[in-house]
Amino acid sequence: MKRLVALIIVLVCFSGAAFSQKKGVGQVKTVVIDAGHGGAKPGAVGKKCQEKELTLQMALKLGKLIEDNYPDVTVIYTRKTDVDINLSERARIANKAKADLFLSIHCNSWNNTTPTGVETYVMGLSQSRANMEVAKKENDDILLEADYKDNSDYQGF
C-alpha angle with apex 58: 60 to 107, nearest 5 degrees? Predict the structure, then answer.
């Protein structure tokens, strides 16, 4: 946990060019931070906590770091409490805000008792089969939503 928080802090501190005061190509003025899972969707469940709890703590800390260090950057959270937000609503929040950056925080489980490292997925505009497979794995919470089959936002996902 400490390593993950430290990594987030390092990423924020060294991303000064992206968060610069003057808006230009590649510069971030609006960030949407998505704490993965929430409410009835716990995500990975460990012996001492659930993924939804860790992601919320990290999202709030990251948002505060950005707000404190980059006052011209607007930070929007998909959730600030333990509530269930549908995946389509999370995307709607980012699109409505015209976010320059959407960060969805997750803490995946692993059978190894001493895991190290991080996973980072960056989704661009291209829709490759590999991107879709990662998206399916990371967004399987859709299947927990009561109306997922009828939700046109998921386009048969």
Answer: 145
